[in-house]
Amino acid sequence: xxxxxxxxxxxxxxxxxxxxxxxxxxxxxxxxxxxxxxxxxxxxxxxxxxxxxxxxxxxxxxxxxxxxxxxxxxxxxxxxxxxxxxxxxxxxxxxxxxxxxxxxxxxxxxxxxxxxxxxxxxxxxxxxxxxxxxxxxxxxxxxxxxxxxxxxxxxxxxxxxxxxxxxxxxxxxxxxxxxxxxxxxxxxxxxxxxxxxxxxxxxxxxxxxxxxxxxxxxxxxxxxxxxxxxxxxxxxxxxxxxxxxxxxxxxxxxxxxxxxxxxxxxxxxxxxxxxxxxxxxxxxxxxxxxxxxxxxxxxxxxxxxxxxxxxxxxxxxxxxxxxxxxxxxxxxxxxxxxxxxxxxxxxxxxxxxxxxxxxxxxxxxxxxxxxxxxxxxxxxxxxxxxxxxxxxxxxxxxxxxxxxxxxxxxxxxxxxxxxxxxxxxxxxxxxxxxxxxxxxxxxxxxxxxxxxxxxxxxxxxxxxxxxxxxxxxxxxxxxxxxxxxxxxxxxxxxxxxxxxxxxxxxxxxxxxxxxxxxxxxxxxxxxxxxxxxxxxxxxxxxxxxxxxxxxxxxxxxxxxxxxxxxxxxxxxxxxxxxxxxxxxxxxxxxxxxxxxxxxxxxxxxxxxxxxxxxxxxxxxxxxxxxxxxxxxxxxxxxxxxxxxxxxxxxxxxxxxxxxxxxxxxxxxxxxxxxxxxxxxxxxxxxxxxxxxxxxxxxxxxxxxxxxxxxxxxxxxxxxxxxxxxxxxxxxxxxxxxxxxxxxxxxxxxxxxxxxxxxxxxxxxxxxxxxxxxxxxxxxxxxxxxxxxxxxxxxxxxxxxxxxxxxxxxxxxxxxxxxxxxxxxxxxxxxxxxxxxxxxxxxxxxxxxxxxxxxxxxxxxxxxxxxxxxxxxxxxxxxxxxxxxxxxxxxxxxxxxxxxxxxxxxxxxxxxxxxxxxxxxxxxxxxxxxxxxxxxxxxxxxxxxxxxxxxxxxxx
Length: 955
Fold this sequence. Notes:
51% of the residues lie in helices and 14% in strands. The C terminus is likely disordered. By secondary structure, the protein is α+β, with helices and mostly antiparallel strands.
């Protein structure tokens, strides 16, 4: 034991001295190992620091109160609540009944003598230095001790009077206002003074102002409703503090929570959060269908397996890159190692010295990476918090986790030095002292094992893509096949050597040297292979998915056309929005569109709000798809047909030609013939029909036997839902219009029909401004779009703007990033192999110089040595990377075909899946040509042309 300690102590001292002597090589290996450690340790610190303790989470949610009482919105229906999360579902299933809605009186669950603090939230458009900004308005007495922790004061104070407000720092930055500024809301003739700034620790990017209860939302809501606009949509919760002596309990207990649930009230309790009930005591957990795969043991095991695979592959890549660097050190120190052997050291000591080099570098990388991770995370904490949108609970350092991450660096360094250590220990003392390389045959077992792994992995991937629907099988088989190719790399390098007879002198020498010294060439080629294979696999998959999305893309408008819609806030802002688009974009034709409103003019779509209804197009019974017809008992009408009948009915025009309803609840808009021009509909008869007051229909399913289109006006949305739940038609008045049916195949871009303004007025319909369509002279530029976006933001309206640019791929930057990554790995691995080759070939280079070879031979030989490694790795990696991508695409095709057949059996409408397999030739060209060429040129440039002429050592 003592001898072992002293021998390793001496080995570590020698390794430390060598690492300090060759600082460049040591720094390179240290950086390769330390950078991933830095990233992982920083990610661990960020993740742990962002995780809040129960006390911290409660402070942000309920402050210092015992509980927060909320209305579930189910009209007092009994509910099942999660004890720790703000989620609840009704006890009853309501399968064939309308889903419960409505408010309940939450005060009936307040314990006697409780201290209550109301917390109301709404929204309004506030005037800023730049225009209008949609802002959350919160009425909470933030200065009350019960609210401590919900808002963190940054400057000034919280409001103490009805005409005072405080604002979040993000709102002040966005609005251009400051503490002391005057604040007003659109529609409210009242001013407020900003007396302080605060932040929401869990929502740093929220635009919010705080006022006293009753000081802002109620006056604003009344003023907006008086002006015929939607109100503030106010919702209120209550913070409670219980009297301990009176209740005899420590806060709001789980039994009290369950009692409140029976009245449809949700309770967030401090006592329950700090001492959660057993799962068996939570009714929600016992309900049918509770629990998802994402929370299951299988999901956690899959996540751990995926993480382990990623870590393992990353370690393999580092080992493949760092291994040749340790081999360089061993080769340069072979005389020193020979002296160790000559003085009584055996192979164990030689291996220990080389392994100690990996240990020293690994420990240094662990320390440097972990320390830098700590420092960077601490210094960048404000930046990280701003990026994540929440404050850290505390800077949480977990030593055991950081120690485990550091041990990965040590293990990686040791594994990277294993092969060089074994190789160095097998060299004889005489060969080490004289500089002879010796000749060793390559292992014949490793290529056979690699070939078996390739065949087995390919078979598994083929099975996964053709027979099974599991992506994990394809991924596992592909990974096994790739490892097999890595194992076969020495043999494949030997096969490349047979092409040397047709090459000129310098590349022939480089290829011969690479083949003769496979111990250093193979790891570098394998490293390039692994990086390129991953890049090609992802690039092939991304390019194929890109082609699939391009084929499936459906244009919303003709190319270059523009649409703008204002879906919320009534119609007050629509004229301003229309004018802004026309002013900032190269508009050719402008077509204003309105929407039909049932009830007040300020009603939003789909009957939201008091006194608001909705409308729908009446589909004549003869035109209704039998698979979708309503039934009295609410059952699925498709169930009475066989699979063959459902497939046949799915091809019926009544089922295939369903009307588009992409913009309004009925798919109808009120507009004139200008809309036809913008949409590119060249149908003179359609324009004439609009001029005559007829509706233009784009779906023949809308027309009845008389050639008319019916629109049902539903004034009571609640009764309509109840009728539909019972399989009945919703009650409402039907208004009929004369109609013109557009030619089949006319592209309407999401519209079911166009109602002329005169016809809508004659029928007594209320139409309010909705938006506009624009055709343009040319595609709007980026500068024009930016100016328009800025002007629209100043209106404070909820604007939906769309400029039809056609399909725009989002994967180009991904492919470019992958190519750059693979190129850097290739150049790094090839450069390491070239450095090792130069160390080995120094005697040959001196001989060439002695016999009169020109100086450029050294430079060109170095370039070709680097290029040979890059070419071999890129070729093998490109071939190996296509397999997993093709396998995954075939699996996706199989899955989508299964969904397609299932949909057809059920009578569903679905196009035949298009799952192409596209090879990204641009990426492959960059990898096969540009990267090796760049690596060769870079190696040639950094190599000295002349070396010192010295006597060649005797051999």
